[in-house]
Design brief:
Helix content is 44%, strand content 14%. By secondary structure, it is of the alpha/beta class. It is globular. The N and C termini lie far apart (42 Å).
């Protein structure tokens, strides 16, 4: 039985591949450029992307379970719908989909609304699916490490409601566990799992953690979402910068707060405590 990983060349996708290989699974990875892919021995690599119908058909042939991960791009929703239709055409029933927490609430945020549409498709087409809904990735903050450590400012406008930030290594391990459960079991009902970290942190909390870890004062940069969008325009297209601004505005108004029992459920699934933001920040500071 073979598990197909889409988005395999990205940060989480590569980690999911590694986790599955370590557990003895047969893995096939879909990548745009095999020459740039580096996977453990035994991983089968198929060239293509989620809009290449013929490549997808080749990738899906003989696959038992699909891990669907697609990036924040203008045609993200179309990519997912094409992939799931082709998966059904190939007779596949088992899917693990990486969505996002509160996809059903942040409906004005384009990439959240798209992921919620995919969740609805999984339900309506009757897939046996696990829908993983991660909160904010701790590793996102590696992009602003220089501002934190060099200028003493935590610039992400995450607000005072709190985000239950999660380490991407925990996401990958949970995804692998769920993929293997789907792959080795009879048809299981659809389920959703919120992927959260052990702490729900505000902007003040996070800046305080960086202060403690670095030994210097780090201030929270505040809730300026317009300024956030403007800064993002330096390294991403306008539509994406605006999407991120809309997301940050929902951070301020709603936060990313886990439901009762989420943290305990994940710790039980992993058989260990979830990684904390303090651990992440300590590692990032040590490697600076």
């Amino acid at each position: 039985m073979t598990i197909l990983i889409t988005g395999a060349s990205g940060n989480i996708g590569r980690q999911v591949v590694q986790q599955l290989v370590e557990r003895g699974a047969a893995v096939r990875a879909l990548v745009r450029d095999p020459s740039k892919a580096s996977f453990p021995a035994g991983v089968e690599v198929v060239q293509g992307d989620l809009l290449d119908v013929q490549a997808l058909r080749r990738a899906l042939a003989g696959v038992s379970t699909l891990f669907l991960l697609n990036g924040v791009v203008p045609d993200e929703f179309t990519q997912a719908l094409v992939t799931l239709n082709l998966a059904r055409e190939a007779g596949m029933e088992r899917v693990v989909y990486l969505s996002v927490i509160h996809s059903d609430k942040y409906l004005n945020v384009p990439h959240f609304a798209g992921k919620f549409g995919v969740e609805r498709m999984l339900e309506q087409m009757g897939f046996g699916a696990t829908i993983l809904r991660p909160a904010y990735f701790m590793q996102n903050d590696l992009t602003i490490k220089d501002a934190v450590l060099g200028h003493g400012v935590y610039p992400m406008p995450i607000g005072a409601k709190g985000l239950a930030m999660i380490d991407t290594r925990d996401i990958a391990e949970i995804a692998a566990v769920e993929l293997l459960e789907r792959d080795t079991s009879q048809q299981l009902p659809l389920k959703r799992i919120n992927l959260v970290g052990p702490d729900t942190l505000t902007g003040a909390d996070v800046s305080g953690i960086w202060s403690a870890v670095s030994g210097r004062a780090v201030a929270y940069g505040g809730d300026d979402t317009a300024g956030f969008e403007k800064n993002l325009l330096n390294f991403m297209p306008g539509w994406m910068a605006y999407d991120m601004r809309l997301m940050s505005e929902r951070f301020l108004s709603d936060g990313m707060v886990p439901q009762a029992g989420d943290v305990e459920r994940l710790a039980t699934l992993l058989g260990r405590p979830l990684r904390s933001y303090r651990e992440f920040a300590s590692e990032a500071f040590a490697s600076a």
